[in-house]
Amino acid sequence: MTAPFLTLAQILNRLTLTAGRTLREHHPDPEGCCPLCRAPDCAVASAAREVLATIRLIRWRPGR
Ligand SMILES: [Zn+2]
Fold first, then answer.
1. What are phi and psi of 39, to 5 degrees?
2. From ligand 1's centre to the CA of 5, what distance in Å?
3. By percentage, how much of the chain surpasses pLDDT 70?
4. What is the pTM assigned to this prediction?
């Protein structure tokens, strides 16, 4: 059930929620290992971090 037309703010909100949840799920354990991927450098977590950083960048300059 996806609405066909979303505003940019709605898209960014959904991306933020998804990336935030992904980041929590792939949060490294005390040894720095991802509990889902079982890898020390989780590619999923770094991708989610980049998404969040990019969204923050976009929100800093609204409409420009
Ligand atoms: Zn992971």
1. -130, 145
2. 31
3. 89
4. 0.77
